[in-house]
Amino acid sequence: QVQLVESGGGLVKPGGSLRLSCAASGFTFSDYYMSWIRQAPGKGLEWVSYISSSGSTIYYADSVKGRFTISRDNAKNSLYLQMNSLRAEDTAVYYCAREFSSSPDAFDIWGQGTMVTVSS
Amino acid sequence: SYVLTQPPSVSVAPGQTARITCGGNNIGSKSVHWYQQKPGQAPVLVVYDDSDRPSGIPERFSGSNSGNTATLTISRVEAGDEADYYCQVWDSSSDHPHVVFGGGTKLTVL
């Protein structure tokens, strides 16, 4: 079935780095735009970054620009988020999400999320 | 940057109709999407492009969008509808396009 599975979360000190991965299955990954979306504990959803199907177009939220890098490997059906210079306010569950084919502005498939905790 | 405003909470009795609003400047010119999120779970798309439903979403979920307000309407509310609901748009008006979520509304079924 169509599925996204995130991994790579954990506890990291402020200023540290972490690389998240999202493994896609059950659909042609290379046909879809993808995004990372995060949710701080007890808070709402916050979009982080977007990458087009080929990887040629990338956007970031202002809060992470210059610190986070989104990438994808279509041969491996995988999406990545390299997070550097991490701050306490980056603590959140990070979801990868697939664009909805009927409306590319929306997200129809989400992973279960991976928790990132930034703390000393 | 573009801001979406939702009421923090809405309460409704079972069988009644719940309406959750999402305010934004001229939001009627944008496509609005709605997500349902239950505790400990990932969000689920329940309405897209203002008023369309993805496959598998009950007809009780509907949406509208005009002027400065979009609305998610849940008819014949059930206990299982209790969740957080988020509206979302794609804002391409600035020099760098980005996704915007509302702050979320907690729906309580009394």
Description:
The complex is a heterodimer of chains A (120) and B (110). Chain A has 120 residues and is an all-beta fold. Helices cover 0% and strands 55% of the residues of chain A. Chain A is built from no helices and eleven strands. Chain A has strands at 3-7, 10-12, 18-25, 34-39, 45-51, 58-60, 68-73, 78-83, 92-100, 103-110, 114-118. In chain A, the strands form two sheets. In chain A, strands 2, 4, 5, 6, 9, 10 and 11 form a seven-stranded mixed beta sheet that branches. A four-stranded antiparallel beta sheet of chain A has the order 1-3-8-7, with no helix packed on it. In chain A, a hairpin with a 5-residue loop joins strand 4 and strand 5. Chain B is mainly beta and 110 residues long. In chain B, 0% of the residues lie in helices and 45% in strands. Chain B has strands at 9-12, 18-23, 33-37, 44-47, 61-66, 69-74, 83-91, 98-101, 105-109. In chain B, strands 1, 3, 4, 7, 8 and 9 form a six-stranded mixed beta sheet that branches. In chain B, strands 2-6-5 form a three-stranded antiparallel beta sheet, with no helix packed on it. The interface between A and B is medium-sized, with 23 and 27 residues.
